[in-house]
Amino acid sequence: MPFVIKRKPLNLMEKLYLPEIARGLSTTFKKIWEKPVTLEYPEQRPTIPEGYRGVPTLVRDPEGREKCVSCQLCEFVCPPKAIRIVPGEIPEDSEYAHVEKGPKEFDIDMLRCIYCGMCEEVCPEEAIWLQNQFSMSGYSREEMVNNKDKLYELGGTLPDEHFKWNKKKDAAAKGGGH
Amino acid sequence: MEINPIVLKFVYAAVVVSVIMGLCSYAVLAERKISSWIQGRVGPNRTALPLVGGIPILGPFLTRLGIFQPIPDGLKFLFKEDVLPGHVNKFYFMMAPVISLVPALTTVVVVPFGRFVNEAGDVVPLVLANVNVGLLFLFAISSLGVYGVVLAGWSSNSKYPFLGGIRASAQMISYELAMGVSVLPILMWVNAPGKEGTMNLFDIAVAQNGFWFAMWMPLSAIIFLVCLFAETNRLPFDMAESETELVSGFHTEYSSFKFGLFFVGEYAHMVIGSCVFTLLFLGGWNPLPFVTLESLGMGQGILGAVLSVGIFLGKMCAMMFFFMWIRWTLPRFRYDQVMKLGWTILLPLSIANLILYIFIIYYLDTGL
Questions:
Q1: Beta strands A83-89 and B115-117, pairing class
Q2: Contacts of B223 in chain A (CB under 8 A)
Q3: Whole-prediction pTM value?
Q4: Facing B325 at nearest CB: one of A25, A35, A40
Q5: Is residue A144 within 8 Å of residue A110, measured between CB atoms?
Q6: B184 close contact with A: CB closer than 8 A
Q7: CB contact under 8 A, A24 and B329
Q8: N or C end: fewer C-beta atoms under 10 angstroms in chain A?
Q9: Gap between the Cα atoms of B242 and B234, Å rounded
């Protein structure tokens, strides 16, 4: 709805203009003594708010296993097609062979990633997380692709208490399976 | 050993010009720092010299103040690519920056920056050329600076610089009038009947041993100050540049060192303008109204000379600060407002002011 802002007519002091300039000068002069609001970046870091969507990473569970089971849902949902997964088997000599699959290769191209967080949303295993890191830099395109090792290094451990793999293994040992 | 006076003059000139250039480069730093303080920022605080920056407490403090910043600022102009656009008139395009800088540096010769009392008790002005037409010379030469702007605008052969040049010339002409008329009361007072007539800036400063002219001719001072802002193309009158509508105005097509010359020229104009305002209205090197260095007993010899130069430079720096302070207080005027202010307010006001002071000075002089 259109409306009209009523403007007061200027009084004499305002019409003279110079007193108003003096008032403006005093305002700016007070500003000089105020503390700057600048965050001096490399030394001072911003506080990252809860739920921040930074660089996507892969996490391990508290027992050090990869949570990712290479279902490739994130690869399919990723809008800019930044994720490439080559699914693989867990080696035969591992304690957890045959329990689940794991990714053989997992690449996220950070030049394509748009930090939308859909991979995190879609992941049934809570294996991919957008964490706090916000600055990525490199000298070549290859450097900007995060491979599996890099992703786990960035991701760290997720302190969840599900221990899904143990439960699955126990169930399989008792002949239950799924 | 007798030093050839001509050689001595060259040495003095070199010293004064290098001081002015140093002042200009630090004026740029001051501008950046004061802008940042007023805007709640930190400003240049990273540039450090390898050795000086490493001194424990002093080094980081100076770095934080940005003391070393002018060096890379200047070097940047030297090392950048100097683009000469194909569509310009090359001769005038190259000449314009020089023409805008040279008048600013030429006016320095008549600006006294202190005084020295020699053993015989004579007061000697510290000035390169103590000419009797000082003020006239200053007005004449400093307004030549606009030719640099106009030539740059015209020779760039593109729209924005052209508009900037046109605006600058129109603005200069409008404000020159009010500026000239506003200082006439001072000249009338200094050249009162019975006194020795002079337009010498030194004598004008000496005439302010009692009242400063800003105190009993405040209207003249205000009109002169406003015109000074317009003449130096500073905000709120930087019509010639006005980034928001004319990209960068007259120096849009300039790069590297040619741009640097314009840049230094602008600050040199500011320095000279501050000097002139200090001399005409703020009592030159008198520490306070009615207080001279002599009355404090510190006017003699080298100490007196150093003190007078120091006080003068202090006042000048305060004026420079005022220039920068105004910049972040007032937004830029619209072009028609600038013209209206110049022709319909300042010019009539300065004439009215002149007539008023004609009567006042007449009554004061004839003792009616």
A1: unpaired
A2: none
A3: 0.80
A4: A25
A5: yes
A6: no
A7: yes
A8: N
A9: 10
The three-state (H, E, C) secondary structure of chain A, written as one string: CCCCCCCCCCCHHHHHCHHHHHHHHHHHHHHHCCCCCCCCCCCCCCCCCCCCCCCEEECECCCCCECCCCCCHHHHHCCCCCEEEEEEECCCCCCCCCCCEEEEEEEEECCCCCCCCHHHHHCCCCCEEECCCCCCCCCCCHHHEECHHHHHHHHCECCCCCCHHHHHHHHHHCCCCC
Task: Name the β-bridge partners of A85.
Answer: A106
* Contacts of A96 by beta carbon, 8 Å cutoff, 6+ apart: A65, A90, A165, A169
pLDDT at A177 over 60: no
Cβ–Cβ gap A38/B40 under 8 Å? yes
ipTM of the complex: 0.75
B35-88 pLDDT, tens per residue?
Answer: 998 988 888 888 877 777 677 777 777 777 888 888 888 888 888 888 888 888
CA distances from B44 to A129, B33, B262, B278 (A): 38, 7, 22, 29
Cβ of A28 within 8 Å of Cβ of B325? The answer is: yes
* A56-169, CATH topology level: Alpha-Beta Plaits (3.30.70)
When scoring B37, B46, B237, B349 by the number of chain A Cβ atoms within 10 A, the one with the most, hence best to mutate, is: B37
Reading the block at residue B111, the tokens are: 């600006």
Least confident of A73-82, A153-162, B171-180, B234-243: B234-243
Mean pLDDT value across chain B: 83
Cβ pair B152, B166 in contact under 8 A:
no
